[in-house]
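Input (MFS transporter):
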Amino acid sequence: MTQTDTSPETNSLSLPAHHGPSEHSGGKGILKQPIAVWAVAFACVVSFMGIGLVDPILPAIANSLHATSAQTELLFTTYLLITGVAMFFTSWLSTRIGTKKTLLIGLAVIVVFAALAGASGSVWEIIGFRAGWGLGNALFISTALAAIVGAASGGASQAIILYEAALGLGMALGPLVGGLLGNISWRGPFFGTATLMAVGFIAITTMLRSKDEVKPTPTKLTAPFRGLAKPGLRVMASAALFYNMGFFVLLAYTPFALADLGLDAAIPLGLIFTCWGIALAISSVWLAPALTNRMRRSTVLIAVIPLLAVDLLLVALFVKSIVAIIVLVIVGGIFLGILNTVLTECSMEATDLPRPVASSAYSGVRFIGGAIAPPVAAALGNAFGAAVPFFFGTLVLVVSMLIIVIGRRALRRADGMIENAEEEAEAIGLGDAA
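Output:
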């Protein structure tokens, strides 16, 4: 199979080597990275901490600020919605001002709005400041993925694994830090994030050298939207929309399901989701590559998404058992880690679009899915009981899997099966028909 150039100068994606240990070789290879990559990865960890940070303090915020569960869930919604919408435009900005400047602007915005959230006097103020936080998050996250892929040694797949490892570690540390600081005050996690992001700002300022950047070709403002017209990316973005709904049902609503059973203290909730994040990180780095070394990426998705759906279904059926929920949340982290890595790899490899464009389009749609889930889950839980949000999560995951099954022919490039232009044209045509 002919491979395309993977150098940053091409600003394009490589065709994935479908099988073989060279692509996914873990261990020493993935750890031998330039210091700039580790600086960005550290900031990624802190950035992703911001997603799970509020999980253990959701009940505390609701109690302290006299907010309903639906209002408190909006802390996720405004954050993720603004992140998702803004991501469609980050490639336009980053290709004009450069990767480093975009990263630093994003980090600075996060520092300011995380600190303001900590100083808030009402739940609505926090909701508003989380929206500003989401804008900074969009600038940082979408650019960070492209920066790591461009600068890391070992090719795009190892870089994506490193990025997903940072995601998993951030998801693991976020609830832990949130629980520990939230046990002192619900304001603590916000101020803690602002401090850590300031450290990330300094690290990137000193370690990521602008002179090493390859000046990218400026992209049009409409590029991510036009990118979604590509069958492969459209299938992946649509599947990710529903997948992220299921993801955030598990992440955002579970604290309230546990609070209904009397488990609402910040530290225990933080420890539960720390174990969940550790499972997610481990499966991102080791299980996902092991599976994609042995089967096509689309096959992994079709096999593992139903397992996550079953996991959420079991949470719904055993929603009155604290032990069952805890075990199933942690097991769910294993499936989520695999899926996060493979979904990201597929989206980055499904087309020949420039990395920043593919990342902006895919991430934008994915985060919008995450924004939809928390308020819907809260509304369903308040109206029909704690089990129903998890039934909803099961349903959207089934939809995600069906999208991949129906559109699988459009994913032949992501699966490493496109060998020539004629086959690619055929796959695109079939994808459009699907």
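Confidence is low (pLDDT under 50) at residues 1-28, 419-434.
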